[in-house]
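Researcher: Following up on the earlier apo prediction. This time include the ligand. It's flavin mononucleotide, with the SMILES given after the sequence.
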Amino acid sequence: MAKVFIVYAHPEPHSFNGAMKDLAAAALTRSGHPVRVSDLYAMKFEPVVDPAQFPQRADPAHFWLQDEQRQAAAIGTHAPDVRAEHEKLFWADLVVFQFPLWWGSMPAIMKGWVDRVFSAGTIYGRGSTGLEGRKALLSVTASDRPDRDEGARQLKAELSHVLNNMLALTRLEPLEPFFVFGPRTLSQADRSLYLREYQDRLLSIAGEIG
Ligand SMILES: Cc1cc2nc3c(=O)[nH]c(=O)nc-3n(C[C@H](O)[C@H](O)[C@H](O)COP(=O)(O)O)c2cc1C
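Model: Understood. Below is the ligand-bound prediction.
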């Protein structure tokens, strides 16, 4: 069975993103795939890097985040909230990032999660195999586009910093992203269609993994 970790960022539980997260968790669980969710807004995840998060400094004179992250990994002093996310990442076979496209990227709370959790010495860096062997799915909603295929091409280009930088460094293997366009104006029938399509896609990915 595929272990699935959903990292979810939307401030409104009744949003389309919220519906996608709930559907994913329910459908995967029903099919026997263990699921864990980090609901970043609900958790009030701290997205801001602060030197105070590193009480045992590698260099007390100058705060270099990557050096401090490496030191925290070496001596086991990562903050508990970061350690908890590391544990979920290493537990998972598939990591799903569920978010609305905001300014061509992920909401700031998720970017801050990446800054803190994708840490040097644990998730990437010299001698680290990172999250190798695991897959990643971006599940993203955006404004409406006249053509879905063209829209998907545009969004992949806009999200290349996520696909080719963040995910590549962690060695997560990116799958073809799943996009929803204009969820706010969808008819009830189209909304159900999108959700069905998403459920089928996820179950098929999870089924292939294990
Ligand atoms: C701050 C902000 C920035 C946005 N930036 C973009 C954008 O760059 N591209 C885009 O297609 N839509 C953009 N949108 C629209 C959202 O992506 C869209 O409303 C959302 O995906 C709808 O999903 P939801 O109903 O779950 O919120 C933005 C919305 C907000 C609030």
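Model: The chain has one domain: 4-209.
Researcher: Noted. I'll compare it with the apo version next.
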